[in-house]
DNA sequence: CTAGGGTTAG
């Protein structure tokens, strides 16, 4: 944002200030704050007052009454003149004093039951019951007890408050705060807002507990703008936030991804002498972690070192997670070892985090090390950790270990396998082409245990069965999915159906899958019909394809395109130009970027990760572009290379084998590269001659060479 | 619950 567009100073508040001072695109990490370098503001009660000295130096028409403040030399006592943005002492909880009846009236034990049983709408009965129970005003303790007991009954909390108001009971802030808590629990934002405003206007005076409750209520009700509004209101109400309220608003910034705003507030608090605690650091750590911002997290670490704060387990957890997310497993590992060394015991979440990272980054050795230490140190375990270990085993291809743990869970009385567990095991089996094992878990064990599979279980199984070309079983699995999770059927599952369709052996199979697709996605079904129809042109296909893609999640778009190309490549009945049309569309929509490389010594195309049909289309496309270059009279390198990858397992070797066959079938002069496994090379002259023989290149080759 | 803020899974 342009500084010249900043709002007038009178409207500045902590949240708007942050936006106006720093461009959002620039990461901003303040220098370490020390008491000597902190800006010397005067002590004022509100943000706009704090900013007044600044406004005096920036604006010409200054109100006269401010001049005395400005003329005071600010360096007179720099240690005392800190900006008043945060209260350095936490709000103290005190017992109410006004209704100081030392002996609590003996509560009729059935009173509470009676109150709870009264319908919310029957205000009169609620009031008369209370009046009967308390002929003289209740004591503070009675009211505290009642309010705490009505925590889960928001409507009655309000009724009690109203009754207290009309009796002679002196309502202090604490009683309102308890009502707010009850309303927050029920996520009744409008009521929270109403009661808090009532406090502002009629009293009792809201305090830090009021504001932090209101801010966290706004957070819980996802009314983030209201959270910021109330934070700003604190200052105008003359209540200085303390560290708890500060963390609450920082959390709101974190959820909104407002990095700069959070940092500015943080830095201003630091300048005011605030020593952030573990909660503040975990909030900021999470903020930077979610943003994949390593520098932000490193800055937090430095700050803690500077302040001599040893992170606690929660802070370590957020950082370990964050660095894992930011693609820095080594830093996560360092942090994990550091906390162990410092005697900060890892908990379930720590272990979940680190094992997830080791699984994701294929760090088998590190994972096994943790696994051993878990047993040795009797580190704590929970359901999520159990399932994460299974996921990790799946990621690392440790099938038998996973099976062992799975059995262990079945024997356990504490951590029985749940639907997550089954979903991981099904995925693991499907990845290893063991569809029968997955089938048994999905259709036998899960129902036996009363577990409802979700759509991902079906998707894994359908994908696996499809790769094995077991069309009838795919149809059966799909029909079961339609019965049990019809509303969850998504693009990913459609993609698996599509890829099965590309493998069908005859028309009957094709029609069976097509019928499934029609039920799952009419839009996809109609696109397939258009692709079939010779008379449908490129623009129509493009529009229909665009519609399909724009509705699909990003990670399914490329698979969609791949599968459609495969379908048109390998099944009869589609016009022969369809695969290239779809490939071009994939390029137009940015699905296939960056697999062509041009160096002086060599041009190459990287087909790894493409489906068979898409790889063939990409190869044809590349060869044509080579021919075009020649026709445009531009220079070529001496050598050309195709990367196909090489796979030791059955799955990864499919593409290399297919392309090898395709190349020899067409007589293309590419041969297996000896110096670089997983690639094929051709000499320039051979390639050009072949291109000419295929009619791809019209220029006579001898003339170029 | 005993007035307020923080972290884990396809």
Automatic annotation (TrEMBL):
InterPro entries: PPR_rpt, Smr_dom, Smr_dom_sf, TPR-like_helical_dom_sf. Residues 605-688 form the Smr domain. Residues 70-81 have a biased composition (Polar residues). It holds the Pfam family PPR_3. PPR repeats lie at residues 172-206, 207-241, 242-276, 312-346, 347-381, 382-412, 418-453. Keywords: Repeat, Transit peptide. Residues 62-81 are annotated as: Disordered. This is Smr domain-containing protein.
């Amino acid at each position: 944002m342009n500084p010249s567009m900043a709002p007038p100073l009178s409207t500045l508040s902590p949240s708007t200030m942050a936006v106006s001072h720093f461009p959002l695109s620039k990461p901003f990490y303040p220098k370490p704050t020390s008491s000597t370098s902190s800006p010397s503001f005067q002590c004022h009660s509100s943000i706009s007052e704090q900013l007044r000295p600044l406004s005096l130096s920036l604006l010409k028409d200054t109100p006269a009454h401010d001049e005395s403040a400005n003329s005071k030399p600010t360096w007179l006592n720099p240690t005392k003149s800190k900006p008043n943005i945060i209260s350095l002492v936490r709000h103290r909880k005190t017992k109410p004093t006004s209704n100081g009846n030392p002996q609590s009236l003996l509560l009729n034990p059935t009173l509470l039951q009676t109150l709870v049983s009264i319908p919310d709408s029957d205000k009169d009965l609620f009031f008369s019951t209370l009046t009967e129970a308390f002929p003289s005003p209740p004591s503070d303790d009675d009211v505290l007890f009642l309010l705490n007991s009505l925590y889960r009954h928001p409507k009655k909390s309000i009724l009690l408050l109203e009754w207290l108001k009309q009796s002679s009971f002196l309502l202090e802030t604490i009683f309102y705060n308890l009502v707010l808590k009850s309303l927050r629990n029920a996520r009744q934002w409008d009521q929270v807002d109403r009661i808090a405003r009532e406090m502002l206007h009629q009293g009792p005076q809201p305090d830090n507990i009021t504001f932090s409750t209101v801010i966290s209520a706004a957070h819980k009700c996802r009314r983030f703008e209201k959270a910021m509004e109330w934070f700003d209101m604190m200052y105008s109400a003359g209540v200085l936030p303390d560290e708890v309220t500060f963390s609450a608003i920082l959390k709101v910034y974190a959820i909104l991804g407002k990095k700069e705003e959070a940092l500015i507030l943080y830095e201003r608090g630091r300048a005011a002498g605030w020593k952030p605690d573990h909660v503040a650091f975990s909030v900021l750590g999470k903020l930077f972690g979610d943003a994949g911002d390593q520098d932000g997290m490193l800055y937090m670490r430095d700050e803690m070192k500077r302040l001599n704060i040893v992170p606690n387990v929660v802070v370590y957890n957020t950082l370990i997670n964050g660095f894992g997310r930011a693609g820095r497993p080594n830093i996560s590992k360092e942090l994990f070892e550091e906390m162990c060394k410092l005697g900060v015991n890892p908990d379930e979440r720590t272990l979940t985090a680190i094992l997830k990272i080791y699984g994701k980054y294929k760090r088998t050795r590190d994972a096994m090390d943790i696994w051993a230490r878990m047993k040795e140190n009797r580190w704590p375990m929970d359901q999520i950790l159990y399932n994460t270990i299974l996921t990790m085993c799946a990621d690392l291809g440790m099938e038998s270990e996973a099976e062992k743990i799975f059995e262990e869970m079945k024997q356990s009385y504490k951590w029985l396998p749940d639907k997550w567990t089954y979903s991981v095991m099904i995925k693991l089996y499907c990845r290893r082409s063991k569809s029968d094992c997955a089938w048994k878990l999905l259709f036998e064990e899960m129902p036996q245990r009363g577990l409802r599979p979700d759509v991902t279980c079906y998707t894994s199984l359908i994908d696996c069965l499809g790769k094995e070309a077991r069309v009838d079983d795919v149809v059966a699995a799909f029909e079961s999915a339609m019965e049990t999770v019809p509303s969850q059927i998504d693009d990913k599952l459609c993609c698996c159906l599509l890829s099965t369709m590309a493998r069908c052996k005859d028309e009957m199979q094709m029609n069976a899958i097509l019928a499934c697709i029609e039920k799952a996605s009419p839009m996809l079904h109609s696109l397939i019909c258009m692709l079939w129809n010779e008379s449908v042109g490129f623009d129509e296909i493009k529009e229909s394809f665009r519609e399909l893609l724009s509705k699909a999640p990003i990670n399914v778009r490329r698979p969609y395109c791949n599968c459609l190309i495969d379908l048109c490549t390998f099944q009869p009945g589609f016009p022969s130009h369809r695969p290239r049309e779809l490939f071009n569309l994939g390029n137009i929509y940015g699905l296939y970027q960056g697999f062509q490389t041009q160096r002086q010594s060599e041009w190459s195309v990287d087909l790894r990760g493409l489906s068979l049909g898409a790889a063939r289309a990409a190869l044809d496309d590349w060869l044509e572009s080579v021919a075009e270059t020649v026709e445009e009279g531009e220079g070529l390198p001496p050598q050309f290379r195709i990367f196909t990858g090489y796979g030791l397992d059955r799955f990864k070797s499919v593409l290399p084998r297919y392309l090898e066959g395709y190349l020899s079938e067409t007589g293309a002069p590419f041969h297996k590269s000896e110096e670089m496994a997983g690639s094929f090379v051709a000499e320039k002259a051979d390639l050009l001659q072949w291109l000419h023989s295929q009619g791809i290149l019209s220029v006579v080759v001898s003339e170029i060479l």
